Protein backbone atom coordinates (compact mmCIF):
# COMPACT_ATOMS: atom_id res chain seq x y z
CA UNK A 1 0.00 0.00 0.00
CA UNK A 2 1.42 3.35 -1.04
CA UNK A 3 2.02 5.89 1.71
CA UNK A 4 2.48 9.64 1.45
CA UNK A 5 5.55 10.97 3.27
CA UNK A 6 6.09 14.63 4.17
CA UNK A 7 9.68 15.88 4.37
CA UNK A 8 10.01 19.06 6.43
CA UNK A 9 13.17 20.95 5.58
CA UNK A 10 14.78 24.32 5.04
CA UNK A 11 18.21 25.72 4.18
CA UNK A 12 21.49 24.10 5.24
CA UNK A 13 20.03 20.58 5.19
CA UNK A 14 22.46 17.67 5.00
CA UNK A 15 21.49 16.69 1.46
CA UNK A 16 22.22 12.95 1.65
CA UNK A 17 19.93 12.67 4.72
CA UNK A 18 17.12 13.97 2.53
CA UNK A 19 17.90 12.43 -0.86
CA UNK A 20 18.84 8.93 0.30
CA UNK A 21 15.66 8.23 2.35
CA UNK A 22 13.48 9.90 -0.31
CA UNK A 23 14.95 7.60 -2.98
CA UNK A 24 14.37 4.56 -0.73
CA UNK A 25 10.75 5.56 -0.09
CA UNK A 26 10.06 6.29 -3.77
CA UNK A 27 11.76 3.07 -4.88
CA UNK A 28 9.38 1.23 -2.52
CA UNK A 29 6.42 2.92 -4.25
CA UNK A 30 5.68 5.67 -1.75
CA UNK A 31 4.95 9.32 -2.59
CA UNK A 32 7.12 12.07 -1.08
CA UNK A 33 6.50 15.81 -0.81
CA UNK A 34 9.13 18.33 0.24
CA UNK A 35 7.68 20.97 2.58
CA UNK A 36 9.46 24.22 3.44
CA UNK A 37 8.71 27.88 4.13
CA UNK A 38 6.93 28.27 0.80
CA UNK A 39 6.09 26.24 -2.29
CA UNK A 40 8.75 26.40 -4.99
CA UNK A 41 11.46 27.61 -2.59
CA UNK A 42 14.90 26.48 -3.64
CA UNK A 43 16.36 24.99 -0.45
CA UNK A 44 20.11 25.45 -0.24
CA UNK A 45 21.85 22.35 1.05
CA UNK A 46 24.85 22.28 3.36
CA UNK A 47 27.06 21.08 0.48
CA UNK A 48 25.69 23.49 -2.15
CA UNK A 49 22.96 21.36 -3.72
CA UNK A 50 19.53 22.90 -4.27
CA UNK A 51 16.28 21.08 -3.63
CA UNK A 52 12.90 22.48 -4.67
CA UNK A 53 10.07 22.54 -2.13
CA UNK A 54 6.80 21.08 -3.36
CA UNK A 55 4.65 22.86 -0.80
CA UNK A 56 4.81 25.59 1.82
CA UNK A 57 4.07 24.99 5.51
CA UNK A 58 1.00 27.25 5.29
CA UNK A 59 -0.68 25.00 2.73
CA UNK A 60 -0.21 21.58 4.33
CA UNK A 61 -2.02 19.57 6.97
CA UNK A 62 -0.60 16.53 8.77
CA UNK A 63 -3.87 14.70 8.05
CA UNK A 64 -2.85 14.57 4.38
CA UNK A 65 0.28 12.49 5.12
CA UNK A 66 1.07 9.06 6.52
CA UNK A 67 4.59 9.79 7.81
CA UNK A 68 7.13 12.57 8.41
CA UNK A 69 10.86 12.71 7.59
CA UNK A 70 13.14 15.24 9.31
CA UNK A 71 16.62 15.27 7.71
CA UNK A 72 19.62 16.69 9.57
CA UNK A 73 22.19 19.37 8.95
CA UNK A 74 21.34 22.80 10.35
CA UNK A 75 17.85 22.73 8.83
CA UNK A 76 16.24 21.24 12.00
CA UNK A 77 17.48 24.14 14.12
CA UNK A 78 16.25 26.70 11.58
CA UNK A 79 12.86 24.96 11.34
CA UNK A 80 12.38 25.68 15.07
CA UNK A 81 12.07 29.42 14.31
CA UNK A 82 8.57 29.04 12.80
CA UNK A 83 6.07 27.58 15.31
CA UNK A 84 3.94 26.25 12.42
CA UNK A 85 6.70 23.74 11.66
CA UNK A 86 6.67 22.42 15.22
CA UNK A 87 2.87 22.21 15.23
CA UNK A 88 2.99 20.21 11.98
CA UNK A 89 5.45 17.70 13.49
CA UNK A 90 3.50 17.56 16.75
CA UNK A 91 0.39 16.43 14.88
CA UNK A 92 2.30 13.38 13.56
CA UNK A 93 3.54 12.54 17.06
CA UNK A 94 0.11 12.97 18.65
CA UNK A 95 -1.57 10.80 16.03
CA UNK A 96 1.21 8.21 16.40
CA UNK A 97 2.08 8.37 12.72
CA UNK A 98 5.61 7.31 11.73
CA UNK A 99 8.24 10.01 12.28
CA UNK A 100 11.76 9.54 10.91
CA UNK A 101 14.54 11.87 12.13
CA UNK A 102 18.26 11.58 11.49
CA UNK A 103 21.38 13.36 12.76
CA UNK A 104 20.23 16.81 13.98
CA UNK A 105 16.63 15.99 12.97
CA UNK A 106 15.58 14.79 16.45
CA UNK A 107 16.55 18.22 17.82
CA UNK A 108 13.64 19.70 15.86
CA UNK A 109 11.25 17.27 17.58
CA UNK A 110 11.94 19.04 20.90
CA UNK A 111 9.41 21.58 19.56
CA UNK A 112 6.63 18.98 19.87
CA UNK A 113 6.97 18.75 23.67
CA UNK A 114 6.37 15.00 23.22
CA UNK A 115 9.82 13.48 23.75
CA UNK A 116 9.39 12.68 27.45
CA UNK A 117 10.27 9.00 27.93
CA UNK A 118 10.92 8.37 24.21
CA UNK A 119 14.01 6.34 23.29
CA UNK A 120 16.01 7.82 20.45
CA UNK A 121 19.41 8.69 19.09
CA UNK A 122 20.90 11.67 17.27
CA UNK A 123 24.11 13.42 16.34
CA UNK A 124 26.22 13.78 19.48
CA UNK A 125 25.97 17.59 19.70
CA UNK A 126 22.19 17.65 20.22
CA UNK A 127 21.90 14.77 22.69
CA UNK A 128 21.88 17.05 25.75
CA UNK A 129 18.94 19.00 24.28
CA UNK A 130 17.05 15.74 23.84
CA UNK A 131 17.84 14.61 27.38
CA UNK A 132 16.65 17.97 28.70
CA UNK A 133 13.39 17.39 26.80
CA UNK A 134 12.97 14.10 28.69
CA UNK A 135 14.15 11.68 26.01
CA UNK A 136 16.17 8.55 26.73
CA UNK A 137 19.14 8.95 24.39
CA UNK A 138 21.11 5.97 23.10
CA UNK A 139 24.25 5.75 20.99
CA UNK A 140 23.11 3.23 18.36
CA UNK A 141 22.92 3.34 14.55
CA UNK A 142 19.13 3.25 14.66
CA UNK A 143 16.62 3.41 17.51
CA UNK A 144 12.97 2.53 17.00
CA UNK A 145 10.49 3.54 19.70
CA UNK A 146 6.97 2.80 18.53
CA UNK A 147 6.49 4.95 15.41
CA UNK A 148 9.66 7.01 15.97
CA UNK A 149 12.80 6.04 14.02
CA UNK A 150 16.04 7.94 14.70
CA UNK A 151 19.67 7.65 13.61
CA UNK A 152 22.95 9.47 14.28
CA UNK A 153 24.74 10.29 11.00
CA UNK A 154 24.77 9.63 7.24
CA UNK A 155 26.73 6.43 8.00
CA UNK A 156 23.55 5.08 9.60
CA UNK A 157 21.35 5.65 6.52
CA UNK A 158 21.09 1.96 5.52
CA UNK A 159 19.68 1.01 8.96
CA UNK A 160 17.58 4.20 9.11
CA UNK A 161 16.01 3.52 5.71
CA UNK A 162 15.43 -0.16 6.53
CA UNK A 163 13.55 0.62 9.76
CA UNK A 164 11.66 3.52 8.20
CA UNK A 165 10.46 1.33 5.33
CA UNK A 166 9.27 -1.33 7.83
CA UNK A 167 6.96 1.27 9.41
CA UNK A 168 5.66 2.36 6.00
CA UNK A 169 4.46 -1.17 5.20
From TrEMBL:
Superkingdom of this protein's organism: Bacteria
InterPro entries annotated for this entry? C56_PfpI-like (IPR006286), Class_I_gatase-like (IPR029062), DJ-1/PfpI (IPR002818)
Question: Which protein family is named in the record?
Answer: Belongs to the peptidase C56 family.
Q: Name one GO molecular function term.
A: peptidase activity
Q: Name one Pfam family in it.
A: DJ-1_PfpI
Protein name as annotated:
DJ-1/PfpI/YhbO family deglycase/protease
Q: Name one GO biological process term.
A: proteolysis
Keyword annotations of the record: Hydrolase, Protease
Which SUPFAM superfamilies is this protein grouped with? Class I glutamine amidotransferase-like
Species name: Salinibacillus xinjiangensis
Q: Where is the DJ-1/PfpI domain?
A: 3-166
Q: Does the keyword Hydrolase apply?
A: yes
Amino acid sequence: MTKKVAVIVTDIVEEIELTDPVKAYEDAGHTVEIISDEAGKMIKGKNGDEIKADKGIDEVNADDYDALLVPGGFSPDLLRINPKNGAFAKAFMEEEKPVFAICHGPQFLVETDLLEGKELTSFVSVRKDLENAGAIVKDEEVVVDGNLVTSRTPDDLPAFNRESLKLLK
